[in-house]
Amino acid sequence: MKSSNAHAPTPPAKRVKRLIRTLLLLSALYGASASAGVIATDPGDYVAFPAGTSLAVLYYNHAERNDVYLNGHKQDTQGFGLDNDIAAFRAVHYVELGPLLAAPQVIVPFGSLRMKGAEDTSASGVGDPLIGSAFWLVNDPARKRYLSFGTWIAPPLGNYDADDGPVNLGENRWKGVLHTSYTQSLFGNLSGEVTAEWDFFGENDDFAGMTRKQSHIFELQTHLRYDFSPGSFVGASYFHTTGGENRLNGVDLDDSLNTKRYLLSVAHMVAPTVQLMGQVGQDLEVRNGPKEDFRVSLRLVKIF
Questions:
Q1: Cα Dmax for the chain
Q2: Structural domains of the chain, count
Q3: What is this structure's pTM?
Q4: Tens digits of per-residue pLDDT, 15-38?
Q5: Does 259 fall in a domain?
Q6: What is the CATH number of the domain that holds 119?
Q7: Residue 5 has pLDDT above 80, yes or no
Q8: Is the dihedral of CA 172, 91, 97, 140 positive or negative?
């Protein structure tokens, strides 16, 4: 005689509930660096350099998370922790393409993730590289006005272990990113910047033995920047991320993002062609996922 559970859905309801909490980690694993999904801009990123200029950029980010939220409610996850130490190397070269200035570039993330809780797990290695370019429709240094768009694609080349689910540097799926950005001098040495981002994803056909699909992510990135001298400034940034609901084997997880966070930045030209920037910040509000309690970032830029 067949069991009454012979036609139970796959995965079982209890497994889906456990995976909901696991999947809530996804939004936090990469957002801090240019490693995947969202490419967080920094103050002054879309102030264009002259054609022929090259940049070598090294990023480092450390973030800590101790609380998980589900539909805006803090969950009982005693002992939970998710920390990351993520770095990325970015190579940029500015060229003229007809009437447009372009900045083709490649971004390669690497580092480690550590999650503690019911089971401790970690991952380290290289993430999925991002390859693309920014293009300036308006490049007006005299009036300090810049309008640009950018596009990137990330092939699934990073380190990935299906059994580790979201705790991976690679994502085992294709990703694309689109940016539209406007920078404008407000008065004196104060400038404002707004970037709209759209992220879209292919499917991961081996996420803990299941198929994971994710809807588009949208992010608004805003910066206020006060320049003391060329390349030396202080900045305040605000980010608002929405969308990104996940599906596992066709099951909607109702885990869409609504995350708000801030960053404070200080940058200084430590040499005529070398800039060092430091940042601190944290999440202000999280609807689904781990809440970032603390973030510190460093960026080193060499101009050629």
A1: 82
A2: 1
A3: 0.88
A4: 544 554 455 444 333 333 333 346
A5: yes
A6: 2.40.128.130
A7: no
A8: positive
